[in-house]
């Protein structure tokens, strides 16, 4: 990818993000509060460019818009335990996570050390 293509892609991604955030601003306040917490949770685990997480967040916005459009209180819609919902959602979107990298690194280090020790 050329530098110009990279810059164009970044600008396009930023434009898309801003449009998605306008959708979030249109949600009822309780939905916005929950959205922000889930977004923060998802980003705290993201790895690499984070774009897989971003696409999962766009799907989350779709999901929350459906609940808001149905006039369902947000905690009735996702459940009382927002943290549990966020974790289940993170797993369902199968994003790359720094936790995955840490797990692989730990296994690789042990394997390497055991081979070095002849075990």
Automatic annotation (TrEMBL):
It comes from the Bacteria. InterPro entries: UCP029876. This is DNA-binding ferritin-like protein (Dps family).
């Amino acid at each position: 990818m050329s530098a110009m293509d990279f810059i164009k892609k970044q600008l396009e991604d930023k434009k898309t993000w801003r449009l998605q955030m306008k959708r979030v601003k249109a949600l009822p306040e309780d939905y916005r509060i929950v959205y922000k917490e889930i977004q923060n949770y998802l980003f705290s685990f993201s790895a690499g460019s984070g774009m897989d997480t971003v696409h999962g967040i766009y799907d989350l916005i779709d999901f929350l818009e459906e609940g808001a459009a149905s006039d369902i209180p947000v905690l009735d819609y996702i459940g009382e335990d927002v943290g549990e919902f966020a974790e289940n959602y993170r797993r369902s979107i199968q994003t790359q996570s720094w936790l995955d990298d840490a797990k692989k690194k730990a296994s690789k280090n042990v394997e390497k050390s055991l081979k070095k020790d002849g075990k």
